[in-house]
Every structure is written in structure tokens, then in C-alpha cells.
Amino acid sequence: MAELQSTEDHLRGEIRGHFERAVNYQKMMENAAGLAGDELERIGGLNQELEKVRFKARRNTRPSRRTSRDTPGSSLPSPRRP
User: Fold this and answer.
1) Domain residues of the chain, as ranges?
2) Nearest 5°: CA angle at 61, between 56 and 62?
3) What predicted TM-score, i.e. pTM, was given to this entire model?
4) Residues near 11 by Cβ (< 8 Å), separated by ≥ 6?
5) pLDDT in tens, the chain (82 residues)
6) What angle do CA 56, 45, 41 make, to 5 degrees?
7) 3-state secondary structure the chain
8) Which value, in Å, is the radius of gyration of the alpha carbons in the chain?
């Protein structure tokens, strides 16, 4: 009978240990999910900034393209950058 009680106590200890680890892992995952959400928000903000930069670049290059097309001698190909 004592051996059965000892085995039961051992198994209960194993179960408790695994349960505590599972709870700890769940907390870690919740924390990681929050961190991932923060990073995704940062990415969204950076993408908005990038779009603003691209918009400004397009806006600034369009007038110069029109001007160069209207200029005599502009049919020459533009030099390529290395």
C-alpha cells in the first residue's frame, strides 16, 4: 500500500510540474504576442512614412520629367548610373 501511495505522489508531482511549465509557457506566449503586436504597429507606422517618402519622390520627379521632355534636345537618352 505504501508503494502505491509513493507512486501516486510521484505521478502527482510530475503532473504538477508539467502543469506549471504549461502555465509558464502560456504566459510567455501571451507576452510574445503582445511584443509581436507592438512590432506590427511599428511596421505599419514605418510603412506610412515610406509611402510619404515615395509620394514626395514621385511628386518631385514628375515635373522634372515633363520639363526635360519639353526641352529641345531632350530626345537624347539619359546616362545610366552604374
Assistant:
1) 26-63
2) 105
3) 0.55
4) none
5) 999 999 999 999 999 999 999 999 999 999 999 999 999 999 999 999 999 999 999 998 876 555 555 555 555 555 565 5
6) 165
7) CHHHHHHHHHHHHHHHHHHHHHHHHHHHHHHHHHHHHHHHHHHHHHHHHHHHHHHHHHHHHHHHHHHHHHCCCCCCCCCCCC
8) 33
Residue keyed to cell 520639363: 67
Task: Please name the amino acid found at residue 14.
Answer: E
Q: Which amino acid is at 44?
A: G
Cell numbers found for residue 35: 511584443
